[in-house]
Write a structure and sequence with these properties.
globular; six-stranded antiparallel sheet
Length: 215
């Protein structure tokens, strides 16, 4: 059974406080509920509960140069940043193409594990980003993938990872907490701490050009 997201946050905070205090200090305070409500108005739908719970624990990350809390060098973004990133990404969404391909695009996404058509889809809500412009998105669409976590970037589009960590936001957070506590790799990424006491993740490459992160 997957642990509640609040429990995983507690485990992550305890680990950071001991091993990566610089990254721990960069965790933002809880979100203002008014900011969450404002983001929901911009997006036009309620945010899923696990995301709200996470935002009420930490409203993003204060300094992107104080480590990467998430594998893939992603950092959490705040409620206000979620709204801004959503507005940016949805500007790339080609609704005409998506409507034209219909279920074909969804089937390709499930079968192939990636889709350029879904990039910027309004119900894929950005929750984290890296310095290169890639995002982690939380799937708010009705159906089998509702609540799943995906990666999204301009070249490959939206990527549906097969590793169990992507199954939901609580699963994602629990997997991170376990990886930190055990110092074991998570889907091809090994937690490490630099000389300035910042958490980062070493990528363990496959024999081909793709990494386990997107497996």
């Amino acid at each position: 059974m997957t642990a509640p997201i609040s429990e995983s946050w507690t485990r992550i905070e305890k680990w950071l406080a001991v091993y990566a205090p610089a990254t721990y200090a960069a965790l933002a305070p809880p979100a203002d509920p008014a900011d969450i409500a404002a983001a929901e108005r911009v997006i036009g739908r309620p945010l899923l509960k696990p995301l709200v719970v996470s935002l009420l624990r930490h409203d993003g990350f204060l300094d992107p140069f104080q480590g990467s809390l998430l594998p893939g060098r992603y950092r959490w973004i705040s409620a206000r940043e979620i709204a801004a990133a959503w507005q940016l990404l949805t500007g790339f969404y080609d609704k005409r193409e998506a409507d034209g391909r219909g279920k074909e695009a969804d089937n390709d996404f499930m079968k192939l594990g990636f889709s350029s058509v879904l990039y910027g889809q309004p119900q894929l809500i950005p929750i984290a980003r890296d310095l290169g412009g890639g995002h982690v998105v939380l799937d708010h669409r009705p159906g089998a993938d509702r609540g799943r976590v995906h990666e999204a970037e301009a070249v490959e589009g939206v990527m549906r990872g097969s590793h169990e960590m992507w199954a939901s936001l609580p699963t994602f957070m629990e997997a991170i907490a376990t990886s930190l506590e055990t110092f074991r790799p998570l889907n091809g990424n090994m937690p490490a701490v630099d000389e300035e006491q910042r958490l980062y993740w070493d990528c363990i490459p496959l024999h081909n050009d793709r990494t386990l992160l997107r497996s």
